[in-house]
Design brief:
It is built from four helices and 16 strands. With 228 residues, it is an alpha+beta fold. It has a domain at 85-226. The strands form three sheets. Strands 6-7-8-9-12-15-16-11-10 form a nine-stranded mixed beta sheet. A hairpin with a 5-residue loop joins strand 7 (79-84) and strand 8 (90-94). The chain is elongated. The two termini are 21 Å apart. The model is unreliable at 132-141 and 171-181 (pLDDT under 50). Bound molecules: zinc ion (ZN). Zinc ion (ZN) binds at residues 22, 24-25, 27, 43, 49.
């Protein structure tokens, strides 16, 4: 966790040898102040009190550190929302895979004002863009994507899903490897049930995979919208 509660009741970032407690369960926390990860806290007991906890990566920590402290790790009726911003939007940063039931449960719990941000780095090699002109399009328009080996669960989500590929880039085509990403997040606007027919042999082989459309949202625009 990025924050814990100090002995004087303040929400504080991790510091060497600092004493603090979990904002949710009140148990003692350990300051993790190493050289690699952003300094953070972990339950001394090694067991997290929130059942929805997922092991925190640098990706989580760096996203959360951009928001103001009062919005981060917000105690939302007994669960720790990654971010609960001043407009009442819950942002869940999801790094690992998650089941359809889990998605449904969280969406019902947090309500309509909730969005997902998925770490795309682990799945970047499974994304393909049939429109070869994708990278030359300057304006933001719909883009068809193919998501090989989609975690089917995301199809059942009823909230906005943003995918963050970070600096990794995405596959333009199978053999071309990755290419630098314009700095943005991909907002999924739809999944197709019946993929469009492709004449291209390469693309035809992907017809069994999940197709959809997304919008490229510049990182600064995403932050402008949610960093309040
Ligand atoms: Zn706790």
């Amino acid at each position: 966790m990025l924050y814990a509660i100090s002995t004087s009741g303040e929400k504080i970032r991790a510091e060497k040898k600092k004493k603090a407690f979990c904002g949710l369960c009140g148990s003692p926390m350990l300051a993790k102040c190493g050289q690699i990860k952003i300094w953070h806290w972990a339950h001394e007991s090694k067991k997290d009190c929130d059942l929805w906890y997922e092991p925190e990566t640098e990706w989580h920590l760096s996203w959360k550190s951009q928001f103001s402290s009062e919005c981060v790790e917000y105690n939302f009726k007994g669960h720790r929302a990654d971010v609960y911003n001043k407009n009442g939007v819950v942002i869940e940063f999801q790094n690992s895979s998650i089941s359809a039931e889990e998605i449904k449960k969280r969406e019902e719990f947090y309500g309509k004002n909730m969005i997902w941000v998925i770490n795309g780095k682990k799945i970047a090699q499974h994304f393909f863009w049939p429109a070869s002109s994708f990278w030359s399009i300057a304006s933001i328009t719909d883009h068809e994507f193919i998501w090989k080996h989609l975690h089917q669960c995301w199809k059942y989500s009823n909230r906005k899903i943003y995918i963050d590929f970070g600096e990794l880039g995405i596959n333009k085509e199978e053999t071309a490897g990755t290419r630098a990403n314009s700095d943005g997040l991909f907002l999924i606007t739809s999944f197709f049930n019946n993929p469009k027919k492709h004449r291209d042999r390469f693309l035809r082989s992907y017809q069994i995979d999940t197709h959809g459309e997304c919008l490229l949202i510049e990182r600064k625009d995403f932050l402008n919208e949610y960093l309040t």
